[in-house]
């Protein structure tokens, strides 16, 4: 049974829950990344597999991009790369002293990845690499991710129990 998720982020300017949606990323999305930490229209980024975009549904606003791969050997979805738009990217805002516009972009994209993992028969398991020690702490605290390799302390996994906690708050209540 395919479960419907109602993804959302929090608008920091008004502390409201904002509905968002994931769709396959397109050339227009990549072109919009000129001021992002990573330009997604470069030759290297265009080679990322399975790219999706997270959009605010009204008004249509690009909030984040994610690339993922189905790893049959590891029986997990590998998050290859994930990035929030500059207005909500902590690394970029740290340099300018700015404040995030939206919170929960990465968590919503991780919830989408958990759903993909469940659909692939991987029980919600995700593997990925944290880009910074700050993100390592965030993924551990907020997502319940765990380190998996001593040789690469940034390599992480979201196991089945943590995956269920991630998507729990996005599940649509059928009796609602």
Characteristic terms for this protein:
176 residues, 29% helix, alpha+beta
Short summary of the structure?
With 176 residues, the protein is α+β, with helices and mostly antiparallel strands.
Commentary on this structure:
This protein is an alpha+beta fold and 176 residues long. It has 6 helices and 9 strands; from the N terminus they run ββααβββαβαβαββα. The longest helix is centred in the middle third of the chain and has 15 residues, at 105-119. The mean pLDDT is 93.
Given as residue ranges, the uncertain stretches (5+ residues, pLDDT < 50) are none
Number of helices: 6
Fraction of residues in helix: 25-40%
What is the rounded Rg? 16 Å
Give the strand line-up of the largest sheet: 6-1-2-3-4-5-7-9-8
Termini separation:
18 Å
Mean pLDDT, to the nearest integer, reads 93
Sequence-ordered SSE layout with sheet pairings:
Elements: E1 8-11, E2 16-24, H1 27-31, H2 43-46, E3 51-56, E4 61-71, E5 76-84, H3 90-96, E6 102-103, H4 105-119, E7 126-129, H5 133-143, E8 146-147, E9 155-158, H6 160-168
Helix pairs in contact: 4-6
